[in-house]
Design goal:
Oligomer: heterodimer
Distance between the termini of chain B: 74 Å
Low-confidence stretches of chain A: 1-7
Structural class of chain A: alpha+beta
Low-confidence stretches of chain B: 4-8
Helix content of chain B: 40-55%
Number of strands of chain B: 23
Radius of gyration of chain A: 17 Å
Shape of chain A: elongated
Number of strands of chain A: 3
Largest sheet of chain A: 3 strands, antiparallel
Number of helices of chain B: 24
Structural class of chain B: alpha+beta
Strand order of the largest sheet of chain A: 1-3-2
Mean pLDDT of chain A: 83
Chain lengths: 115, 896
């Protein structure tokens, strides 16, 4: 882990995984590649944590899994969003955008004089 | 540790052994490792470096693997549960669909199970309130004790619940601080209000400590205070139960302080006891008044006498106290000479549960009947289950082809069993619902029949009963469903599909079921017969008087006694003359007491004979014509004369004559009252023995004195009752005519007219109950068994249509076929009857104590029952036999 990497909260990780799957069914390795490439090394996610997140969301009913063949022809477990999962992507994305916007506003604000 | 390279070849075989969840997780992670390492190598890393980097990027492999497995296990378990529910629902849907196609069978099974379960649930509610449930509203009932004493009475040793006040004081002194004590009297019906409009309520007397011990509190007003609890000159105060307050007083918020007339005396209502407390007896109490009023009218100082001993004693030992030690101390205290009224130094004090029926005292005979009935209910359920099994087996055979096809199409046998079992379960659940209805009505009926005088506080149906019924439903469905389902699932596919008719599987099992049904029915019918014969025996007992014709009539008052009024005897005499003119009244006379339940005796000397101390005849004071009016037979001599003939006369009973003057004719003998040298009362008549208090009692010596000729020792007696012999068919009209005569003759008085048969009815009740209920269950069992025999026989005939066709084609006559079929049916029943009678003889000792004049192994009963069942069995087999005899040989043979 590099000095610039940030520790991610569990909820944030779920948003990222859901986001990855919103492009279509993907195996765990694919999700890992999507996130690490997308973040461009700004933060680094432990791959193991991604798998925990995937399985936990399967338990929650947001994703479902199926065995299939990867591009290399090897057997891999593919994950796909369920209807509940797609709903979760929408609301989590909205939440996340609102959060980011709020953080950005705080960063941009200047202190007001006390009354 | 990494997935691709360090897994030795042999470990790949583990995937066949490892559970699928672990395998999936490993496969998934292995794919990740392989892909990443390959990618890194392609980017120019060394294999070793690529592996290290992959491991670094991944984190703690062991931890992640464990996490994933536990998540996946949860997911799998959840899925399995969902599937099970879905499967069960689909099973039930299938069951209901297929039951709809067989409505007759469904209704039959549901009704059979409902009756069986309902009967048991009803018995359960009865026994539960009787023996198991602590009285409602009592705080920590487990810590309360009822005190009993074991006495040797003249009629044998028994547990006795009654205590006198001196005994209570002795008990209180003996336990000291180791237990709290309280005295109370069981609720008794007492008139509330005035005049003829007065209604009865259950009134109990109790000390203040009684409420403290039971934890009862006032929800309105207060309980009575210590000074109101005094034994001498107590305040007339009363508290009522919440139930009585709601029902009889409309929940009046201002009830406290209002007057309440109890037993003709004015009391002040001071408070309402909080619900649900209704005392500690089965009989719910409505009103409590201070202890002092229990013996009111017996003069002051009754609390110093040990004769007033109708109280019950409760104790609440302190937590440290030892029951056995307390009992020993109480035994010692109660054996003191002061309480020698029982003449017994062997008294033993013993604690019992607050639930009185739980012992150790003797139970009511009705309760004993109830306990037997519970066993009967279980037998009925067994018969019902056997019959349901039988019906389901029949259905299983009919469905062999369907089942075989399903099996051939690949349904698992276990799944098939579940599918078939679901049908039984669906029927049982329906039966359970019906059973609750049955239980509600049967429970209410049982209570009314068994203990009609009990004031029940609880509804016949409540949660314990519902859960009991549910439990029985599940047990019954398992008992009735498993064997048929297994039979079906064991179907041999090829045999069934090849042959057209199907095998004759299970016929032996069905015969066994019919035998057991017949046996259990025989058992119940034997019981019924024994109870019926006991009832007949008790009913035909000669009471000495004519109970169906005998009536007494008098007037009562709320405030004063008739005795205070010197004109009463003359007015009663006038009343009797007017009653004699009512059509349907045959004889009329006067008496000082009722013909039964009135026991008085005085000291007397008879001739020169010495008599044993136990010879203690009672006497009754009557007018001439009393024997004709009461139906007591005059055996020798004559009745009293209307006018005094100058000599004193007495009439004695047969037993008295034999005991006082053995070997001689008693007529003309003298009786002297008070002292040996008094006037001679000459015996002028001997009458038949008559009962003194109980229907079943040995003849007791007694004598009769004339109202107009009383010795000084008995001179206080005056006429109190008109005794008459009335036509039972016109009893209603006669009663109302007498009532209006009493109103005319005694203005302000309340007519009290009693038929002796009504008076005695409760005494016949245990036998009536035994006879009625056992007969009802016996007939139910018989009907169920007949259905079983019928269905088995007709199924057998159906299976053997081909055989009968051949027989008839070969020249068998209809009679031969009928004889063959009926003979087989009867043989099965005969085996059952023999087994059943053997069972009845073995079970006889459980009912022997409740029988009268008949023993359990009575051959006549066994023979009658056996004959009845055999006839029923034959009748059940005749219809199918007739069908067998009419088989058309051409038609049956052609189908082959």
């Amino acid at each position: 882990m590099t000095a610039t990497s940030l520790d991610l909260l569990q909820g944030t990780l779920d948003v990222l995984v859901l986001r990855a799957l919103s492009w279509g069914p993907m195996h765990g390795y694919g999700v890992a590649r999507f996130i690490n490439r997308g973040s461009d090394g700004t933060f680094k996610v432990l791959d193991g944590a991604l798998y925990t997140s995937l399985h936990r969301m399967e338990e929650r009913g947001w994703v479902e899994s199926e065995w299939g063949n990867a591009e290399s022809g090897k057997r891999a477990k593919f994950y796909r969003l369920t209807t509940a999962g797609r709903r979760a992507v929408r609301s989590e994305t909205t939440n996340w955008n609102a959060y980011v916007a709020a953080v950005a506003r705080v960063f941009a604000a200047t202190p007001e004089p006390a009354r | 540790m990494s997935y691709p390279d360090r897994t030795p070849a042999w470990r790949r075989y583990l995937r066949f052994i490892r559970p699928p969840i672990a395998r999936d997780v490993d496969d998934e992670l292995r794919f990740h490792f392989q892909s990443r390492i390959e990618e890194l190598i392609a980017l120019g890393a060394t294999p070793d470096g690529a592996r290290r980097q992959t491991e670094d990027e991944f984190g703690d492999i062991r931890q992640v693997r464990n996490d994933l497995m536990s998540i996946d296990q949860r997911v799998a378990a959840h899925r399995r549960r969902g599937e099970q529910v879905r499967e069960m629902l689909s099973d039930l849907r299938y069951a209901i669909r297929s039951l709809r196609r067989a409505p007759g069978l469904t209704i039959g099974v549901v009704l059979l199970l409902a009756l069986g379960i309902g009967a048991n649930a009803a018995m359960f509610t009865f026994l539960d309130t009787m023996f198991l449930r602590a009285p409602e509203g009592v705080v920590s009932p487990g810590g309360l004790r009822r005190l009993w004493t074991y006495h040797h009475f003249s009629n044998g040793a028994q547990y006795w619940p009654g205590f006198s006040y001196p005994e209570f004081e002795a008990v209180r002194g003996a336990v000291g601080n180791d237990a709290k004590t309280a005295l109370y009297s069981a609720p008794q019906k007492t008139k509330i209000g005035l005049g003829e409009s007065g209604v009865e309520a259950q009134v109990s007397t109790a000390s203040v400590a009684f409420f403290d011990l039971t934890g009862a509190r006032a929800e309105l007003g207060r309980l009575y205070a210590a000074d109101e609890d005094r034994l001498d000159a107590p305040e007339r105060v009363a508290v009522v139960s919440h139930r009585y307050w709601t029902n009889a007083m409309d929940g009046d918020r201002h009830a406290a302080g209002k007057p309440l007339v109890i037993g003709g005396k004015k009391y002040t209502l001071v408070g309402v006891v909080g619900a649900p407390f209704v005392g500690v007896d089965l009989d719910a109490a409505d009103i409590w008044i201070p202890l002092a009023f229990y013996a009111e009218g017996r003069g002051s100082g009754w609390w110093k006498k040990s004769e007033t001993n109708g109280f019950q004693l409760l104790l609440r030992p302190s937590p440290e106290a030892n029951d056995a030690q307390l009992e020993q101390r109480l035994t010692a205290a109660l054996r003191r000479p002061l309480f020698g009224s029982y003449g017994d130094t062997a008294t033993i004090a013993e604690f019992g549960s607050i639930v009185r029926a739980a012992g150790p005292g003797k139970r009511l005979q009705e309760v004993e009947v109830g306990v037997r009935l519970a066993a009967v209910a279980i037998i009925v359920l067994l018969i019902a289950c056997a019959n349901v099994v039988n019906l389901l087996l029949g259905r299983a055979v009919q469905r062999q082809r369907e089942v075989a096809v399903r099996l051939a199409l690949g349904i698992g046998r276990w799944r098939l069993i579940r599918l078939l079992f679901a049908e039984t379960l669906a029927m049982s659940l329906a039966a359970g619902v019906v059973a609750l209805l049955v239980a509600y009505f049967a429970g209410a009926t049982l209570r009314r029949l068994l203990l009609p005088d009990i004031h029940w506080a609880t509804s016949p149906i409540d949660w314990p009963v519902v859960s009991f019924a549910l439990l029985l439903t599940v047990v019954a469905s398992v008992a009735a469903g498993v064997i048929p389902a297994r039979q079906s699932a064991g179907t041999d596919v090829t045999t069934v599909l090849k042959s057209r008719a199907g095998g004759v599987r299970g016929s032996r099992l069905r015969a066994a079921l019919v035998i057991s049904q017949a046996a259990l029915s025989a058992l119940l019918l034997c019981g019924a017969a024994l109870f019926v014969r006991s009832l007949v025996n008790v009913r035909s007992l000669d009471l000495g008087f004519n109970a169906s014709r005998l009536m007494t009539a008098t007037a009562t008052y709320d405030y004063h006694s008739r005795k205070d009024d010197p004109t009463t005897p003359a007015r009663l005499a006038e009343l009797s003359r007017r009653i004699a003119r009512i059509p349907g009244v045959a004889h009329v006379a006067l008496a000082a007491t009722r013909p039964i339940y009135s026991i008085s005796w005085i000291k007397f000397y008879a001739g020169a004979d010495s008599m044993s101390r136990e010879f203690n005849p009672t006497y009754t004071v009557v007018s001439p014509g009393y024997f004709a009016a009461s139906g007591i037979r005059l055996l020798d001599g004559g009745d009293f004369a209307d006018s005094r003939s100058g000599q004193h006369t007495v009439i004695v009973s047969e037993t008295m004559a034999k005991r006082a003057w053995p070997g001689r004719r008693a007529i003309g003998e003298c009786m002297y009252f008070g002292t040996r040298g008094g006037d001679c009362y000459r015996v002028i008549g001997i009458v038949g023995d008559s009962r003194e208090s109980a229907v079943i009692e040995e003849a007791k010596p007694k004598y009769f004195l004339s109202l107009s000729d009383l010795p000084p020792e008995a001179k206080d007696w005056t006429a109190n009752y008109v005794v008459l012999s009335a036509d039972p068919a016109r009893a209603g009209a006669i009663t109302s005519a007498i009532r209006s005569l009493i109103r005319e003759e005694f203005p302000g008085g309340i007519p009290s007219i009693v038929r002796l048969s009504d008076y005695l009815a409760p005494q016949y009740r245990p036998w009536e109950l035994g006879a009625k209920l056992f007969t009802a269950f016996g007939i139910l069992a018989l009907v169920v068994a007949v259905i079983g025999i019928y269905s088995t026989t007709s199924y057998g005939v159906q299976q053997r249509v081909h055989e009968f066709g051949v027989r008839i084609a070969l020249g068998a006559r209809a009679v031969d076929v009928v004889r063959l079929v009926v003979g087989e049916g009867t043989r099965i029943v005969a085996i059952g009857v023999v087994v059943g009678i053997a069972l009845a003889v073995a079970a006889g000792r459980f009912v022997a104590a409740l029988l009268y004049g008949v023993t359990p192994n009575d051959p006549l009963t066994a023979l009658t029952v056996g004959a009845c069942l055999l006839v029923a069995g034959m009748a059940a087999a005749i219809v199918p036999a007739w069908r067998a005899a009419r088989v058309d040989p051409a038609a049956t043979l052609k189908t082959d």
